[in-house]
Write a structure and sequence with these properties.
Low-confidence stretches: none
Strand content: 25-35%
Order of helices and strands: EEHEEHHEEHEEHH
Mean pLDDT: 93
Number of helices: 6
Radius of gyration: 16 Å
Oligomer: single chain
CATH class: Alpha Beta
C-alpha cells in the first residue's frame, strides 16, 4: 500500500528519486502512464495487470471507453528503478504532467501519483475542492 506525500526534484535527465518507502512495494518493474488531473499514475506490475483486465471489459462500441483506453495506454511506459532508486520519466509524460524541476510524489493506496509541485499546490488550493462535500459524496457511495 502506498501512502504519504514526498517532495523531490527532477534531475537534468528527467529522473526522479522514488521515495524509499515506496520502492519495495513498487517492485523491479512497473508501469507509468498519464494520470487524471495533470499528474502521472505509477502502478506496480500486478496492479497494472488488474487494471488492464478491467479496461479490457469496456465495450469498444462506447466512444468514451475507447477514448479513455487510448489515453491510458498510449501514454504508458514500462519503467524500473536504477541503483540509486531513480526512475526516468519519459518526455511525453513530463510534458503531460507539466513536470520541470520540483515534484510531489504521493501514495494513493494501490498506485503512486507524481505531480509537478505547482499543479499539486493548485489542486489543493482549488476553491471548488471542498473536502466536506467530497466526504458527503463518499458517504453516499457507502464509505
Amino acid at each position: 500500500m502506498f501512502i504519504g506525500e514526498y517532495q523531490h526534484t527532477l534531475d537534468t535527465k528527467g529522473r526522479i528519486i522514488m521515495p524509499s518507502k515506496f520502492r519495495e512495494s513498487l517492485g523491479d518493474e512497473f508501469v507509468m502512464t498519464k494520470g487524471l488531473d495533470n499528474c502521472l499514475f505509477v502502478y506496480p506490475k500486478n496492479e497494472w495487470t488488474i487494471l488492464e483486465e478491467k479496461l479490457k471489459t469496456l465495450p469498444l462500441t462506447n466512444r468514451d471507453a475507447r477514448a479513455f483506453i487510448r489515453f491510458f495506454f498510449s501514454g504508458a511506459s514500462e519503467g524500473n528503478l536504477d541503483k540509486q532508486g531513480r526512475v526516468l520519466i519519459p518526455s511525453n509524460l513530463r510534458e503531460h504532467s507539466k513536470l520541470d524541476k520540483e515534484a510531489v510524489v504521493i501514495g494513493v493506496s494501490t498506485r503512486i501519483e507524481i505531480w509537478s509541485k505547482e499543479e499539486w499546490e493548485s489542486y489543493n488550493n482549488d476553491d471548488n475542492l471542498s473536502y466536506e462535500s467530497i466526504a458527503e459524496t463518499m458517504a453516499e457511495l457507502g464509505i
